[in-house]
Amino acid sequence: MKATAPRSIPTTGQGNYRDLLRNQPHLLKRLDGEATIMSCRRGQAICRQNHPAKHGYFVIFGVVRRCVLRADGRRQIVGFLVPGDFFGFVARDEYNYTAEAVLEGTILAIYLRRRVEELADSDPCLARELRQIAFEAISRSQAQLLILGRITAVEKVRSFILEMETRLPQRRGHSVALPVSRYDIADYLALSVETVSRSLTVLKHRGVIKFSGTRMVEIVDRDALEDGEHED
Amino acid sequence: MKATAPRSIPTTGQGNYRDLLRNQPHLLKRLDGEATIMSCRRGQAICRQNHPAKHGYFVIFGVVRRCVLRADGRRQIVGFLVPGDFFGFVARDEYNYTAEAVLEGTILAIYLRRRVEELADSDPCLARELRQIAFEAISRSQAQLLILGRITAVEKVRSFILEMETRLPQRRGHSVALPVSRYDIADYLALSVETVSRSLTVLKHRGVIKFSGTRMVEIVDRDALEDGEHED
DNA sequence: CGGGACTTTGAAACCCTTCAATGCCAGTGG
DNA sequence: CCACTGGCATTGAAGGGTTTCAAAGTCCCG
User: Fold this and answer.
1) How far is CA B66 from CA A69, A93, B96, B147, in A?
2) pLDDT digits (tens, 9 = 90+) for A115-152
3) pLDDT, mean of residues A203-212
4) Would B61 disulfide with which of A163, B107, B214, B219, CB 3.0-4.6 Å?
């Protein structure tokens, strides 16, 4: 294991983030004018658990993690957000999770929830889009439930790689650039870091995946990755 | 362990289910006229995975489980629905889970999704309510993610009892009537049936809970149940 | 060049799953 | 009425997978 992924990814040289939003098709297109654009440092908190839920967010670039802190101090990640995903539109007046930027230079569009709700009242199409956003969040949660419900660690890690491969836009060829650390993966899959690392090693030794850098995974045997032929 | 819970619960003698809906405050109140009322047999399928998602549902009485069948034949339960919960409002044109009645005599209100969507277009208030329904589904999913993320079986079972105690309407005193079998609990918590049974026994021996019938749990030491003082 | 974050590997302890068997209860048919 | 069956629940023992504790290696960055 030699090269690693960069801890930060260069942002658009000119800082003209708004163009990124304009050039991207997404549900709240008609709200582009309402959006504030924000670039985040690595690890920066975007919204905090039990704080007033004033804003909704759209990921333009980078990766965001939604976490919950347990009583015992353990952290659980209840979702990753990648470009194209919305978050922050919650049921109550307070967020029930903390969101943090995973990558340096993560770029978000920020909306005022109150304003969005008002506009939706007079725009049925926008209202439908908001429902669609909520439904997609439900689908993501259910997908994660299915991953967490798997029995063995190797199965969970397999599913994780496949999920990232599906959701990440920046995949080229058969490679996936895992955008998060082993610790993040562990807290996402409810495993220990060591088990995550060992599971990846197992998959490598089986010839299912290959590494070109710690976080660069090449999918060698897609069937084995999907079907789990070793029935782990 | 002597007495058990009844496998079926008597329905309203007269079968006048619609009154149940009318007497219940809920989000889609204004759609009561649009709703069809249905009573289900134990185990009856309500909607099926990969089938057209034509309807949305509201649980008036009883319990519903949302399940997904795995490639390996295992079943995973991705949610229980109790009176007051909506389900079936999904992102795609097809359901991504199968819903089944858990209790004999489970009563549902059924809505035509297409019709509901149309009405929402001309009724901003209804549109807001639909979003609220979606947000609540998200909250339920996240709560389940937190349960599945717990480390030990006893912790998961503790959380399950507390969740049921919170969500079920028919709790009297400090007792919870677990509405589902050990098998259902196991598939919900991603544990084996035996482990669920053993965990309940552990909690009983610790004096945290007491049984009056297999499915009737009395909470003796609430603090221990909530905080997990034995730090399992 | 050294500190710090991240990653990997090893060994022991622990917990859960699996396999197997028993017990309980409700409904059924002789 | 009672034996019988099937579904559900509990308990035991063995095996295996994950966690925990410990340590070493890698890489980035100041």
Assistant:
1) 27, 28, 9, 16
2) 999 999 999 999 999 999 999 999 999 999 999 999 99
3) 96
4) B107
Q: Which residue has the tokens 């070109």?
A: A212
Residue A204 beta carbon within 7 A of nucleic strand C: no
| CA of B61, C1' of D22: distance in angstroms | 55
Q: Do A146 and B122 touch (CB under 8 A)?
A: no
CA A88 – CA A75 distance, rounded (Å): 19
pLDDT of residue B10: 39
Show the tokens assigned to A178: 């895992």
| pTM for the whole structure | 0.92
Burial, A188: exposed, middle or buried (Cβ in 10 Å; 0-12, 13-18, 19+)? Answer: buried
pLDDT band at B229 (very low <50, low <70, confident <90, very high): low
User: Is residue A42 within 8 Å of A102, Cβ to Cβ?
Assistant: yes
Helix A182-189, helix A124-148: angle, nearest 10: 90
Among chain B residues 2-21, those with CB within 7 Å of any atom of strand C = 2-4, 7
Contact B96 A142 (CB under 8 A): yes
Terminal CA-to-CA distance of chain B, rounded, Å?
Answer: 25
CB contacts of B146 in chain A (<8 Å) are 68, 76, 78
Span A29-66, pLDDT tens digits = 989 999 999 999 999 999 999 999 999 999 999 999 99
How far CA A13 is from CA of A103, B133, B178, in Å, comes to 16, 42, 58
- pLDDT bin (cut points 50, 70, 90) of residue B169 is confident
Q: Are B170 and B209 in contact (CB under 8 A)?
A: no
Whether the CB-CB separation of A100 and A88 falls below 8 Å is answered with: no
Q: For A132, which of B91, B135, B148 is closest by C-beta distance?
A: B91
CB-strand contact A197/C, under 7 Å: yes
Dist. CA B107–CA B15, nearest whole Å: 10
- Euclidean distance between CA atoms B119 and B35, whole angstroms: 13
Reply yes or no on whether the pLDDT at B24 is more than 70.
Answer: yes
* Residue type at position A84: G
- pLDDT reported for residue B13: 40
pLDDT at A169: 77
Q: Residue A160's closest CA among A138, A187, A133?
A: A187
For the sheet with A216-219, list strands across it: A175-177, A216-219, A209-211
B118 Cβ under 8 Å from any chain A Cβ: no
Q: What are phi and psi of A139, to 5 degrees?
A: -60, -45
Place of tokens 């009583």: A71
8-state DSSP, B43: T
